[in-house]
Design goal:
Helix content is 26%, strand content 36%. The chain is of the alpha+beta class. Among the domains are: 30 residues; 59 residues.
C-alpha cells in the first residue's frame, strides 16, 4: 500500500491480473470447446438420420419424392427391383388353392421356351373366384 497526500492508495501487481484473466479465458475456451464438441456430435447424429437405407439390394426403379417434401420413417419412397431373377404372378381358380403349396414345382412356356419355376408365395385372399400366387425361376434368367 502506498500513502499519497494522506490518502491510502492500493497498488496491485499487473502480473496478478494478467494471470487471473488468462485463467478465466482458458476456462471459457475449454467450455466453448466442450459445447462445440457436443454440437458436432448432434450434427453427426442428424446427418446419419438423413441417410436412407434400402431393405434389400437391387435397382431403384421408381423414386417418388419432391424437393422439400417430408417423409416419415417407414414410408414408401420408391421401388427396388431385386435383379437375382424373374418372378411370375399367376391367378388360379379358388377350387385349386388347396392343391398349391410353397416350393411346389411349376412350368411356364414363354416365346417358345419352357421355364422351370417354383411357387414362392401364395396370397391368402380370393378375389373374383381367383387366388393370386407368385412363381420364381429355379435359375438365373437368360
Amino acid at each position: 500500500m502506498i500513502f499519497r497526500n494522506g490518502s491510502l492508495l492500493s497498488v496491485w501487481s499487473c502480473s496478478d491480473s494478467i494471470s487471473v484473466s488468462t485463467e478465466d479465458q482458458k476456462r471459457q475456451i475449454a467450455a466453448s470447446i466442450d459445447r462445440m464438441k457436443a454440437n458436432l456430435s448432434l450434427l453427426r447424429s442428424n446427418m446419419e438420420k438423413l441417410v436412407v437405407r434400402a431393405p434389400a439390394d437391387g435397382v431403384l426403379s421408381s423414386f417418388n419424392v419432391e424437393i422439400g417434401e417430408t417423409k416419415n420413417p417407414g414410408e414408401r419412397l420408391g421401388q427396388i427391383d431385386i435383379m437375382d431373377g424373374y418372378k411370375m404372378r399367376a391367378n388360379i381358380d379358388e377350387r385349386y388353392v388347396s392343391r398349391v403349396v410353397i416350393g411346389q414345382e411349376a412350368e411356364m412356356d414363354f416365346s417358345g421356351k419352357s421355364y422351370d419355376l417354383y411357387v414362392s408365395k401364395i396370397y391368402t385372399g380370393v378375389t373374383g373366384g381367383l387366388s393370386r400366387w407368385i412363381c420364381s425361376l429355379n435359375r438365373k434368367c437368360p
